Amino acid sequence: MALSSVVVLRACAFLVCCGALWRAVGIWLDHRDSIVPVHRMQVTKWSSEQRGRFDSVTSAITVPGAALGGPLIAQLGNLRLLQLGLCSQLANALLLSQATTGKHFYLAAPAAMLTTGATSALAAMTMVAGATIVAA
User: Fold this and answer.
1) In which element (H, E) is residue 109 found?
2) pTM value?
3) What is the pLDDT of residue 122?
């Protein structure tokens, strides 16, 4: 019985860590998503048509990251994909912080491709931890 309680405690600690990480990433993303469009509008002075075109292109760039989430988890593992996704978000944020023309925003967009992979990896890690608790 002592072994199963240790497994349950470790799984609970893992879930708490995943939850804290998820909240931190969520807060950072919410903050980033509210500042970056304002910065982009001030720097580029794009019309609504140009902003829509840019949003369409960036969405098309991030879709493969979401579609490849499962296969990447199978090949790399949850933790490695989460690390790559967070590095992708960091690279994108660093590139966007230095953007001074519209071209810079377009060039920074591919750096966010694995961002959705990080979300997939974190969701998978949370499900595995939950299954561990239920099984124990």
Assistant:
1) none
2) 0.63
3) 78
